């Protein structure tokens, strides 16, 4: 499809009461299916081929020239955004209705640089532990040949969503 025939994606933030009413995996799946708006940060990432199972999410993206840093390669913030998003959504996919999360910290390791010639990359996030107050997860970015480009770990705070 070219830009004239591609469906217009409406980015936004899902109202808290809607999010709180859904199990996390249902929320993530609804967002991936376009039934709920993807968050505005995804305008820069343009994910596709998205899947969500309890504790595991995966999506693809294509690094482009718009993601370049001053030294002529894809900025580390692109990889960090992919990894943080995948880890957070993996955690979210394990939460019951009325429970939320936020990232407390994450660590990224850059293994191999990306350019606009890298092609589609796959980001997969997977939970390690999800408790009542804290969750941990990991994520990996690989290229089409399965080579590791970057990986990360996170700790998230788990909490009851405030009533609206």
Automatic annotation (TrEMBL):
InterPro entries in UniProt: ACOT13 (IPR039298), HotDog_dom_sf (IPR029069), PAAI_dom (IPR003736), Thioestr_dom (IPR006683)
NCBIfam families referenced in this protein's UniProt entry, alphabetically: unchar_dom_1 (TIGR00369)
A Pfam family this chain is assigned to: 4HBT
SUPFAM superfamilies attached to this UniProt entry: Thioesterase/thiol ester dehydrase-isomerase
Family, as annotated: Belongs to the thioesterase PaaI family.
A Gene Ontology molecular function term of the record: fatty acyl-CoA hydrolase activity
Upper classification of the organism: Bacteria, Pseudomonadati, Pseudomonadota, Alphaproteobacteria, Hyphomicrobiales
Name assigned to this protein: PaaI family thioesterase
Keyword Nucleus: no
Domain of life: Bacteria
Keywords for this protein: Hydrolase
Organism field: Bradyrhizobium sediminis
Location of the Thioesterase domain: 72-149
Alphabetized CDD domains for the sequence: PaaI_thioesterase
């Amino acid at each position: 499809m070219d830009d004239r025939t591609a469906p217009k994606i409406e980015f936004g933030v899902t109202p808290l009461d809607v999010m709180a009413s859904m199990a996390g995996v249902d929320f993530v799946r609804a967002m991936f299916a376009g039934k709920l708006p993807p968050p505005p940060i995804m305008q820069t990432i343009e994910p596709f081929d998205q899947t969500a199972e309890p504790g595991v999410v995966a999506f693809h993206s294509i690094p482009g020239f718009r993601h370049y840093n001053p030294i002529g390669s894809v900025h580390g913030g692109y990889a960090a955004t992919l990894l943080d998003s995948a880890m957070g959504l993996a955690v979210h996919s394990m939460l019951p209705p009325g429970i939320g999360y936020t990232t407390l910290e994450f660590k990224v390791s850059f293994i191999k640089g990306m350019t606009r010639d890298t092609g589609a990359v796959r980001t997969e996030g997977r939970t390690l532990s999800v408790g009542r107050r804290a969750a941990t997860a990991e994520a990996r970015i690989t290229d089409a040949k399965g080579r590791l480009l970057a990986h990360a770990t996170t700790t998230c705070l788990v909490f009851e969503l405030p009533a609206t």
